[in-house]
Every structure is written in C-alpha cells, then in structure tokens.
Write a structure and sequence with these properties.
The protein has 325 residues and is α/β, with parallel strands linked by helices. Helix content is 41%, strand content 17%. The strands form 2 sheets. The protein has a 6-stranded parallel β-sheet with strand order 2-1-3-4-5-6, with helices on both faces. A 6-stranded parallel β-sheet has the order 9-8-7-10-11-12, with helices on both faces.
C-alpha cells in the first residue's frame, strides 16, 4: 500500500511517538509512507491516515478535496467531556473554549460522514466519542498503543522512590499527588515528579520536582528505578506512561475513572482521583505492604505483554486494507 500520512504542526509528545512507531511498523511490513502537511497537495496514495486528532479535533479540510479513503485517529474528546476549566483555565480562554467546542461538535456532525473510519485508543475513548460526537460505534475501532521495549524494561537493583511523570496540565492532578504525599507522616520512600511546566515550587526535602523537558531515555531511567508509579489523572484516553511503568515492573496507583483502570488491569491500585485521602492511603499501602508490592510487580510485567507497537501497527494495517481491497 501507498499510505498518505497527515503531518500536523506541533503534535503532542504522545501523538508524535504513536505516529512514529506505527509508521515504522508499516514501513517494515513493506508499505510506502508519504507525509504531507498544510502546504502540500493531497498525494496520490491508496489511503490517507491522520493520526493527530486530540480533544475532539476534526481532520484538516484537505479531506474535502479528495475521495481517497481517509482514516482518522481520534484520541478522545476530553475538550467536550471535561469541565471547561481543565482545558481552558481562565475566563477569557473559557469563552474561547465554548466557541471551539461548538465548532468541533458542528464539524464532526458533518465530517463523520466523510471519514472512512475512526481509530481510537481505548474502549473508554470509543464510548466518549459515541456520546460526545455521535459517531457510530461500528465506525470506530479500538487499538491500544504500544511501548518502546528497548527503553522500558525491568531493571534489577534497589528501587528508591515513588514516581509521577507527565507534561503539566491541570487534569494530570499533580497538585493532589503532592498534597497526598505530604499528608503521610513517615514516608518510607521519597517522591520524584517529572513534570515539565509544573508551576508551583514545593519546599519539601522528600519531594524532588523536575520541571524541564526530558528525553525518552531519561524518562525511562527514572521509571526503571521507581518503587511505584503514581498517576491519578482526572482524564486519560489511554495513558502511555501507565504502560511504560508496567513494562519496567513498576506497580501503579492510578485513577478509577476514564481509561486508567482499563489500561492498568490488575497491575496496581485504583483510587478516586478527587480524593486526596484515597491517593494517600494507596501510597501508604504500597510502601508498607511488601507482599502486595511484589505481587503487583509480577502483574505489571504480565499486563505489559498485552501492548506492543508491532501489534498496534498490524491492527492499523488490517483496517487500512479493509478500505483498499
């Protein structure tokens, strides 16, 4: 197949990783990839894939210039399903957010008839797309992300801290992680937070916060030395760090909402992300119950085997073939 891949400007890090890994797989299967962007004409290809639609974003208008089957990866609809304050924090931005969301709903009411198929990243995300955008369930396929098994794998040696990793957004709930940890009277492990853009300094000798971007190798280094991974996000369509942590044999503490429990399986503890006490209790339990911790390490490694980029790419290929043969 000759596959056109839409190249968005400044994609989110997770979207960029996802696109690169699927493209790498498709090329290894013998398919030709043609990237194109805003300044380019629609290429002569068998099928077009836009991997970049996040927050209920609709495809580029170039979809209207062609009858080539156009597949869209729609990563979720958090813009529509969450309160405005999480994606548009100020009053001025909330006014703008209302208009953005109205436009996205309007455009999808039309584009859903133009898009050949929608790929999304979890059963939760599929349900969200059906409810928020009215996309037909039969038009949506769920394909999980994979992880880089060269970087993320179990490492022997002493585990030395609790860990949180994210790029700062209010929905990541990082402040609740800090508050919950500071409520522990005698923590057995320090807390390390890797969160580029985290705005508030924290004066606590047991808490280290890295607020500048790190490359994937550096993030993997932190993952492999963590005792547990703390990720009580308020909204995730998938949650790639959850899989990366499990691949390193690191038990999870994550939310009991959105896609988090679906991705975690039985490899950790699910908490109410709106309850600081619930997050704190889970931290205390994972630190003080070594038998539970060791059992979750094994479950994490087992659960991680369900995710691979090769599998992800093969499932994309299957869908692309459906519309070209």
């Amino acid at each position: 197949m000759r596959i056109g891949v839409w190249k968005a400007k400044n994609p989110a890090t997770s979207v960029q990783i996802y696109t690169e890994q699927v493209v790498k797989g498709l090329e290894s299967f013998g398919h030709q990839i043609v990237f194109f962007g805003q300044a380019d004409a629609v290429p002569e290809v068998d099928i077009i894939w836009d991997p970049s639609c996040t927050g209920a974003r609709y495809p580029n208008r170039k979809i209207l210039q062609t009858d080539i089957p156009w597949i869209v990866t729609l990563h979720g609809a958090s813009n529509l399903s969450m309160p405005l304050k999480y994606n548009f924090p100020t009053f001025g931005s909330q006014v703008k957010g209302v208009l953005i969301n109205l436009r996205r709903r309007l455009m999808w009411s039309w584009y859903k008839y133009k898009v050949a198929h929608v790929i999304t990243v979890s059963a939760y995300a599929k349900e969200e797309l059906v409810q928020e955008l009215g996309i037909y369930p039969t038009q949506i396929s769920v394909i999980y992300h994979g992880y880089d098994d060269v970087l993320f794998h179990k490492q022997s040696g002493e585990k030395s801290y609790l860990l949180h990793v994210s790029v700062y957004q209010s929905k990541k709930n990082v402040e609740a992680v800090v508050e919950a940890y500071r409520g522990i009277r005698e923590p057995r492990w320090p807390l390390v937070i890797v969160c580029p853009g985290f705005p508030a300094p924290v004066k606590d000798s047991n808490i280290t916060i890295h607020t500048t971007p790190m490359n994937r190798k550096q993030v993997a280094g932190y993952m492999k030395e963590a005792y547990a991974f703390i990720f009580p996000s308020l909204h995730e369509s998938f949650g790639m760090p959850l899989v990366e942590a499990m691949a390193c044999g690191v038990p999870l503490i994550t939310s009991n909402t959105t896609a988090c429990p679906e991705i975690m399986g039985d490899a950790g503890m699910a908490v109410d992300p709106l309850s600081v006490a619930d997050i704190r209790h889970a931290m205390e339990k994972i630190m003080n119950d070594s038998a539970l911790h060791d059992a979750l390490v094994q479950k994490a490694l087992l659960r991680a085997k369900d995710f691979s980029w090769e599998k992800t790419a093969r499932l994309h290929e299957t869908i692309f073939r459906r519309y070209t043969e």
